[in-house]
Amino acid sequence: MKTTSDLKEKILELKKRKNAVILAHYYQEEAIQEIADFVGDSLELSRKASQVDADIIVFAGVYFMAETAKIVNPNKKVIVPDVKAGCSLADSCQPEDFKTFLAQYPNHTVVTYINCSAEIKTLTDIVCTSSNAKKIIASIPENKLIIFAPDKNLGKYLIAETGREMVLWEGSCIVHEAFSLEKLIDLYKKHPTATIIAHPESETHILKVAHYIGSTSGMLNHVKNSTNDTFIVATEAGILHQMQLDNPTKTLIPAPSKENNTCACSECAFMKVNTLEKLYNCLKKEQPEVKIDTSVIEKALVPIQKMLSIN
Ligand code: 13P
Ligand code: SF4
Fold first, then answer.
1. What is the pLDDT of residues 123-161, one digit of tens each?
2. Report field, pTM of the whole predicted structure over 0.90
3. In a domain? residue 64
4. In the chain, alpha helices (H)
5. In this structure, are 139 and 214 located in the same domain?
6. Per-residue pLDDT for 265 more than 80?
7. Ligand nearest to C-alpha 173
8. What pLDDT score does 43 carry?
9. Which of 26, 150, 193, 288 would give a disulfide with 171, using CB separation of 3.0 to 4.6 Å?
10. For residue 166, is it within any domain?
11. Is the CB–ligand 1 distance for residue 132 below 6 Å?
12. Would you say the CB of residue 28 lies under 6 angstroms from ligand 1?
């Protein structure tokens, strides 16, 4: 069995020889974040993917993110450590069901969160991420009706923030719905000076008590720029690695989950399917490769490019 440092060395050597770049989400395990050329949130990763000049993109995240990288780079090889790194939120919105749903609401502008499949993106007018969702909604003329999918929690947050009416798809993320309000309040009572920060995929009752709501990078920046020294963090636990590196003296407490205390509910099991060993194997064999029909790429690129142009 290879050690972590053996694997890292071999990955670096293969990466150089094959002119590959490794893009990773902040929810990846620490060793993957450490070896990556670029670590970011969904928006930063899609922006970065549209700018790389390597021949191969190794995408360490979940599948919809790797698909986005392929859509913006149809001529590059995009490979992933494990094709089973899915997303409960993306899976909650299947194309045939979504088409039936859309047919009920003609003349609506369809905004989809980037956490959806390439096929759902072909049925979309404009894509958004948690970093730019308010900006994307603000770019839609006031007289236009809006459908927002697939995350109902982010959708409800956007309705409250923007004052716009939206028809919501009933999807959600199992990780961000795992937090317990009751336990969070108890924890806060023990740390009354803490700042509660939350991702907008969390449920409304969690967002109501949060002092700051933002995307993965939004939360990282908030903690870095804040003068406070204690934070209760309601999002996927992988973010804590970078947050602690950025703020070695600050106290970061993961928000408690509804299940018993031994459960790793705030870890995204899909993200954690990727390992350093799988990353090494995928770079060595140049597979599994992300393959998408050209017609899907062409259609899905339009709402992604619209989003990127707004940023
Ligand atoms: P962001 O990277 O946009 O914060 O999204 C979090 C997430 O759930 C990714 O799947
Ligand atoms: Fe999907 Fe939730 Fe995991 Fe993000 S954290 S990849 S939304 S299941």
1. 999 999 999 999 999 999 999 999 999 999 999 999 999
2. yes
3. yes
4. 4-18, 30-35, 42-49, 63-72, 88-91, 95-103, 118-121, 133-138, 152-162, 181-190, 204-209, 216-225, 239-246, 276-285, 294-310
5. no
6. no
7. 2
8. 87
9. 150
10. yes
11. no
12. no
205: which 2 tokens?
A: 């009752």
- Which residue lies with its CA nearest to atom 7 of ligand 2? 173
pLDDT surpasses 90 at 236: yes
CA Rg, the chain, in Å?
19
The bridge status of strand 145-149 relative to strand 77-79 is: unpaired
Tens of pLDDT, residue by residue over 266-285, are 899 999 999 999 999 999 99
Query: Could you tell me the CATH number of the domain that includes residue 163?
Result: 3.40.50.10800
Which one, of 179, 155, 308, lies nearest residue 256 by Cα? 179
Co-location of 104 and 50 in the same domain: no
Q: 30: domain range?
A: 4-85+271-291
Q: Which of 48, 51, 78 is nearest to 63 (CA)?
A: 78
Which amino acid is residue 105, in one-letter code?
Answer: Y
Do the domain assignments include residue 266?
Answer: no
3-state secondary structure of 186: helix
Find residue 157's DSSP bridge partners.
none
Asked if 94 and 77 sit in the same domain, the reply is no
In the chain, the number of structural domains is 3
pLDDT digit string, tens, across residues 22-47? 999 999 999 999 999 999 999 899 99
Residues 44 and 15 in one domain: yes
